């Protein structure tokens, strides 16, 4: 049985939180399915750009993105999505 790659990716940045160097931006939006598909294509393009050579630097960075429907009946209140 394979583990959920998103679960693994979500656990990976814990040390960055411990050192004060996280870069996350969880957000929620009420949008139509078509707009979500268009947005995901843009995220996919950014992901491909992130993974392109050249491979430089001293640190390996991870990049994870997710777009998924939720069961939230309403949007979270102002400031509830932002982390640090």
Task: Write a compact overview of the structure shown.
This protein has 84 residues and is mostly helical. It contains three helices and no strands. The longest helix is centred in the middle third of the chain and has 19 residues, at 33-51.
Descriptive overview:
The longest helix is centred in the middle third of the chain and has 19 residues, at 33-51. By secondary structure, the chain is mostly helical. The mean pLDDT is 82. The chain has one domain (1-84). It starts with a helix and ends in a 33-residue tail after the last helix. It contains 3 helices and no strands. The chain has helices at 5-11, 14-19, 33-51.
Please supply descriptive tags for the structure shown above.
84 residues; mainly alpha
Outline the fold blueprint:
Blueprint: H1 5-11, H2 14-19, H3 33-51
The amount of beta strand, in percent, is under 5%
Mean pLDDT: 82
What is the share of helical residues?
25-40%
| Gap between N and C termini | 35 Å
| Multimeric organization | single chain
Computed CA radius of gyration, to the nearest angstrom: 15 Å
Main sheet specs: none
Give the number of helices.
3
**What class do helices, strands and sheet pairing give?**
mainly alpha
Order of helices and strands: HHH
What's the structural domain tally? 1
User: Shape, please?
Assistant: globular
How many runs of DSSP E, i.e. beta strands?
0
